[in-house]
Specification:
Blueprint (H helix, E strand, L loop, with lengths): L8 E5 L8 H12 L5 H11 L8 H9 L3 E7 L2 E10 L4 E9 L8 H11 L1 H4 L3 E4 L5 H6 L18
Parallel strand pairs: 4-5
Antiparallel strand pairs: 1-2, 2-3, 3-4
The structure holds coenzyme A (COA).
The site of coenzyme A (COA) has 18 residues, from strand 4, helix 4 and helix 6.
C-alpha cells in the first residue's frame, strides 16, 4: 500500500462543535472545519495504537473532545491515521494530549505534522509554555524542539487511589 505522506490531509477541529448531536455536527464540521471527526474512528485509533486510551468509551471520548480547545486529525482519504489535541488558557499554559499515529503510518512525519499544527493553533501559540506528558515519546518530542524539564515534577492525583 502507498504510504507517501503527501497523501495525508490534516484538519483542525474546535471542541465546541462536539456539543452538537452528530446529525448537525458532522455536516457542520465538514463545511466549517473541512472534515468531520467520527468518534468511533478515534476510539479505534486509540484502542489499536496507544496503551493509555484503549478502554475509552464513545461517550467519554465525546466529552473529552468537547473539553479540548484544539483537535487535529490526519486522514488518508476517509481513514483516520493520526490525532492530537490540546487544552489551553490561551495565554499562560497549554498542554498536548493523545498524540497518536496509526502504526502503519508511523515514522513518516505524521506525528510531527500533528504536533506542529497543534503548536500553530492561535490558542496554543499564544501560551507562554506548552507541556507534553509522555511515557515512550520523549525522543519524538525532543526532535520537535521540546526539552526535558528537570526542575519540575509530574504530580498525579488519581481518582480512587
Ligand atoms: C510517538 C508518535 C506519535 C510519533 O509519530 P510518528 O509519525 O511516528 O513520528 P514522525 O515520523 O513525525 O517523527 C518525527 C521525528 O521524531 C523521531 N521519532 C519518532 N518517534 C520517536 C521515538 N519514539 N523516539 C525517538 N525519536 C522518535 C523521528 O525519527 C523523527 O525524527 P527526524 O526529525 O530525524 O525526522 C507515534 O510513534 C505514536 O503514535 N506512538 C504510539 C503512541 C505514543 O506513544 N504517543 C506518544 C506521544 S503522547
Amino acid at each position: 500500500m502507498n504510504k507517501d505522506p503527501s497523501r495525508l490531509r490534516s484538519f483542525s477541529h474546535g471542541g465546541r462543535l462536539f456539543w452538537l448531536p452528530a446529525l448537525l455536527r458532522v455536516p457542520l464540521q465538514r463545511s466549517l472545519e473541512g472534515h468531520a471527526l467520527p468518534v468511533g474512528q478515534l476510539q479505534k485509533l486509540l484502542m489499536d495504537n496507544s496503551f493509555w486510551g484503549r478502554a475509552r468509551r464513545l461517550a467519554g471520548l465525546l466529552r473529552c473532545l468537547r473539553g479540548s480547545d484544539v483537535i487535529v486529525s490526519t486522514w488518508d482519504r476517509d481513514d483516520l491515521v493520526a490525532v492530537g489535541r490540546a487544552t489551553t488558557d490561551g495565554i499562560y499554559r497549554a498542554v498536548l494530549w493523545d498524540v497518536v499515529v496509526r502504526r502503519d503510518w508511523q515514522g513518516r512525519g505524521a506525528g510531527r505534522a500533528v504536533v506542529n499544527r497543534l503548536l500553530a493553533a492561535p490558542a496554543v501559540r499564544c501560551a507562554e509554555r506548552v507541556y507534553a506528558m509522555t511515557t515512550h515519546g520523549k525522543g519524538f518530542y525532543q526532535r520537535l524542539g521540546f526539552h526535558e524539564e528537570g526542575k519540575q515534577h509530574l504530580m498525579l492525583f488519581r481518582k480512587g487511589d
